[in-house]
Sequence to fold (167 residues):
Amino acid sequence: MAKKRKGAPGGGTPATVALESAGADYTLHAYAHDPESGLSYGEEAAHALGTSPERVFKTLVAEVDGALTVAVVPVAGALDLKALASAVGGKRAAMADPAAAERTTGYVRGGISPLGQRRPLPTVLDESALAFPTIFVSAGKRGLEVELAPAVLLALTSAVRSPIARG
Fold:
């Protein structure tokens, strides 16, 4: 996989800066975000990139026992909140308030990346990601995805892997 350097389409987000700082291998993919598409952000990305929704992962922020936690799951599925709580040793999980998620991560909804967050949060990657040589996650804004190896994402976010997706 080729490293993309400055000048990559849509580069310069905190996520791409984090990837560059780490010397990580990744590929940046830009597409025209269409708010009128009727698709979720993740479904739109999979369609625009011409890839399977199982390889495109959405970044969700949940609250586990009062602490914000990031869940990275395929857009083809849904987050299992009980499994997420269990993965981080918690008892109860609920989706976080969108404003709190945006404020804490520094990203807007639909563009939240697991990388380069304003305040790094505990992160859990669904284990289905490991079935692919590369996966796609948000690069920090709508219409911009980063393709990278799951091992790179795990390392850069200090994430744990666990079966947290259903469907």
Summary: DSSP finds five helices and ten strands in the chain. The radius of gyration is 15 Å. The first strand starts at residue 27 and ends at 30.
